[in-house]
Design goal:
- The structure is a single chain.
- It contains 6 helices and 8 strands, in the order ββαββαβββαααβα.
- It is of the alpha+beta class and 230 residues long.
- The protein is globular and about 80 Å long.
Length: 230
């Protein structure tokens, strides 16, 4: 599957529309903000990795964390667990504003599949190398703010779910012990401003055609020159 599907264009953007148990949300991703982060996030959403997974960490005024999918596809699971390099910081995007998205991590170059959406008091985020925004919620932020928060943070700071059992037991663990948590339903992705392979093919074809025409012109000039007698 490779590291991530990418056009290689920093101008590429993506609109990601998701249905959730709290209502629809729309997110806008920007490759220029965080190229590696954008490529990984967009590909995971396109592959349906997040479909039906839960927002397992919801901390009022701080963040919503998600990204442990329930896929049984071995290749997709391996892809989601592989890590990507950190991206350069964009100071103009900091501090975090409500609705911004970035990857969670633990050490430099540790980003894989877990992400968060910032709430209104997440200004302290962005100091770690992996906390680089790659997009923002553009519609349905009120639904994100309404995600169930009653369990609080993960232990020992709250009574929310632990990540280990989510990886091991999947949705059954959440449904049994944390039934009120909200979740994704399904998502769709629309990429924009792509530098496609067909564009490259057209460009290369034009070069080849120019060479052929130029060669033909030179051959005609040579024949004409050969006919001249002195």
């Amino acid at each position: 599957m490779g590291n991530a599907k990418s056009s290689g264009s920093d101008q590429e953007e993506a609109i990601v529309q998701c249905d959730t148990s709290a209502g629809p949300i729309t997110m806008h991703f920007y490759r220029s903000w965080s190229p590696h982060g954008y490529d990984r996030a967009t590909t995971l959403f396109e592959k349906g990795y997040f479909d039906h997974s839960h927002f397992f960490r919801v901390v009022d005024h701080f963040l919503v964390q998600f990204g442990i999918g329930y896929t049984t596809d071995k290749e997709l699971k391996a892809f989601s667990q592989s890590t990507i390099p950190d991206d350069p910081k964009r100071p103009e995007l900091l501090p975090f504003k409500e609705g911004m998205l970035a990857f969670a991590g633990s050490v430099p170059n540790s980003r894989s599949s877990q992400m968060f959406i910032a709430y209104d008091r997440a200004g302290s985020l962005g100091q770690n190398s992996w906390e680089t925004p790659f997009g923002k919620v553009t519609s349905g932020l009120e639904n994100v703010k309404n995600f169930y928060k009653g369990y609080g943070d993960m232990p020992p700071w709250g009574k929310g779910p632990k990540q280990g059992p989510i990886y091991k037991r999947g949705a059954d663990y959440i449904k049994k012990d944390f039934p009120l948590l909200d979740k994704f339903e399904t998502c769709s992705v629309q990429r924009m401003n792509q530098s496609t392979g067909s564009d490259n093919l057209i460009f290369l074809s034009s070069i080849v055609l120019s060479v052929i025409l130029g060669f033909g012109y030179l051959q005609r000039k040579k024949r004409k020159f050969d006919k001249i007698t002195y």
